[in-house]
Specification:
There is one protein chain. The chain is of the alpha/beta class. Helix content is 29%, strand content 13%. The strands form two sheets. A seven-stranded mixed beta sheet has the order 7-6-8-9-10-11-12, sandwiched between helices. A five-stranded parallel beta sheet has the order 2-1-3-4-5, sandwiched between helices. β3, α6 and β4 form a beta-alpha-beta unit. It is globular, with a radius of gyration of 21 Å.
Length: 510
């Protein structure tokens, strides 16, 4: 097996990540009704060849608190085939209720705890030039060759099989550009020899944005023999999947996890900012970047969002700001005249809309009809898609874990998409590219002797700071074992052109 050559790594530097979260995760809120936006004539659709970039968005996130679930008492070191989980661990339904998982879903077996060696990756100059570049891996220090790699399902001399859980149907289907986008990075990498001679193969399963379905699909992927699983869905769905995989000892990666996940979760890794961190950062941004003193927020009445607004209020008070508007909306609500009236009367200079794009745009529209036009602040992942923008997106600010399409770091993805599909990409494939670039670095850090032990250790010590990836720098060793970044990039919306523009700065903590 051969390692990725320096030339390969240089070609692969700017490969880097998912956008669908505009359509799921409690971070995203209710549904991202893309078809409604099309009917309103507020968005245009990039066509990847003959694959329409359509689809709806976020489902009702529900009000359950998935973070408090007990991940089980099973031995997380299951060797070989982990088997099917005992009991019914799937919870909730498409309305967003997660509840607690039932039964012992743990598997038995040997201890797969990470052992030996420093599998962490080191920095190096990986900045992209903005041309046709790729992601350059760091000068990794893989674990010693005699390190016990642990179980290695889905890994052969030529292949690494990865499971992907996203809603392809149901209340929150992702756009069709998601699946070709999540594969594009690996297709390009395969041309350069893959990872130590192995090509990554993605097996995508439909969660229907439903906790029961998602857990069952995770089990199906395990039976299929995948090495690891990446999940991108509503917060409670991701939490249910994490709990299932924690009981099996399988290292797994998520777009995000609930605030303060159980300390016993040692196998689950989130690649975006914690929602509590986000709330405090938004308050600081409003104070220091926007220069306002009277602020407000409107959030969905989901329990998972409470920690975010609590952090926002606490930080605003610390900074001497006044939170003059504190509104909540219900999932599925369509008339926001009362909310718009209260916002207008509050005098808030900037308002954080902690929800998905559709209700946010409706609130903006009804507020504009009352001649109330504050500086709108968009909610992290759920707004950071160009498909989310309408004419009301003019001047809105948003945090994003990935760069905008206008950023030079996105050029590698755009060039690969054009060559593959003969069309201009939207920013959905950019998210998949970024997720893959993170997994790429983790696989490199695990070394040629890839297994659950070496992969888990690589994730724990993963540090992409100093690399010019399209994804926010990750440093699990500096943040926590569950959340890998406290950095975002700020985007400003151009609703007329229906695009987000990256601010002239890099990822930062604000």
């Amino acid at each position: 097996m051969r390692r990725t050559s320096p030339r390969t790594t240089q070609h692969l530097r700017a490969f880097a990540l998912v956008t669908i979260l505009a359509m799921f995760a409690v971070a995203c809120g209710p549904r991202f009704d893309r078809e409604l936006l099309i009917e309103q004539g507020t968005i245009t659709v990039a066509q990847p060849g003959d694959q329409p970039a359509g689809g709806e968005g976020a489902a009702d996130p529900g009000a359950a608190d998935p973070g408090a679930a007990d991940p089980g008492n099973a031995d997380p070191g299951a060797a070989g085939d982990p088997g099917a989980a005992g009991g019914d661990t799937s919870t909730g339904d498409s309305s967003g209720s997660t509840g607690s998982t039932g039964g012992d879903s743990g598997s038995t077996g040997g201890d797969t705890g990470s052992t030996g060696g420093d599998s962490g990756s080191t920095g190096g100059d990986t900045g992209s030039t903005g041309g046709d570049t790729g992601t350059t891996p760091p000068a990794n220090q893989p674990p010693p060759a005699n390190t016990d790699p642990g179980p290695k399902p889905g890994v052969t001399d030529t292949e690494i099989k990865v499971g992907v859980l996203v809603p392809l149907s149901g209340a929150a289907p992702v756009p069709p550009t998601w699946e070709p986008g999540i594969n594009l990075f690996w297709e390009e990498l395969a041309k350069e020899g893959g990872i130590y001679g192995r090509n990554v193969v993605m097996s995508v399963k439909d969660t229907e944005s439903n906790t029961t379905t998602a857990v069952n699909q995770a089990r199906a992927l395990i039976q299929e023999g995948v090495f690891t699983i990446f999940t991108f869905d509503r917060l409670e769905v991701q939490a249910a999947v994490a709990k299932e995989l924690e009981a099996r000892g399988m290292p797994n990666v998520h777009m995000m996890l609930p605030v303060n996940p159980p300390a016993s979760w040692t196998n689950s890794f989130a690649i975006t900012i914690d929602h509590g961190v986000q709330g405090a950062m938004i308050a600081r941004y409003m104070k220091n970047e926007l220069g306002v003193t009277k602020v407000g927020y409107v959030r969905e009445n989901a329990a998972e969002l409470a920690p975010g607004v609590a952090a926002f209020e606490a930080e605003a008070a610390k900074l001497g700001m006044e939170v003059v508007a504190k509104e909540q909306i219900s999932a599925g609500q369509s008339d926001f005249d009362g909310v718009a009236t209260k916002l207008s009367q509050s005098g808030a200079e900037s308002v954080w809309l902690y929800m998905a794009p559709i209700p946010a745009n409706q609130i903006q529209g009804q507020s504009a009809s009352k001649l109330y036009t504050p500086i709108w602040f968009a909610n992290s992942v759920s707004w950071a898609f160009e498909l989310a923008l309408t004419r009301f997106g003019d001047g809105a600010h948003a945090f994003s874990p990935w760069v905008g399409l206008d950023d030079p770091r996105a050029n590698a993805m755009k060039n690969a998409w054009r060559a593959r599909y003969g069309s201009e990409p939207d920013d959905i494939p950019l998210v998949g590219w970024g997720v893959d670039s993170v997994l790429h670095q983790a696989f490199l850090g695990a070394g040629e002797n890839l297994g659950w032990n070496t992969f888990r250790q690589s994730l724990r010590s993963l540090n992409t700071e100093g690399m010019d990836l399209v994804w926010a720098p990750l440093a699990f060793d500096k943040t926590s074992s569950q959340t890998g970044t406290e950095q975002v990039i700020a985007l400003i919306g151009d609703g007329t052109a229906k695009k987000w523009n990256s601010r002239p700065r890099n990822f930062t903590r604000y």
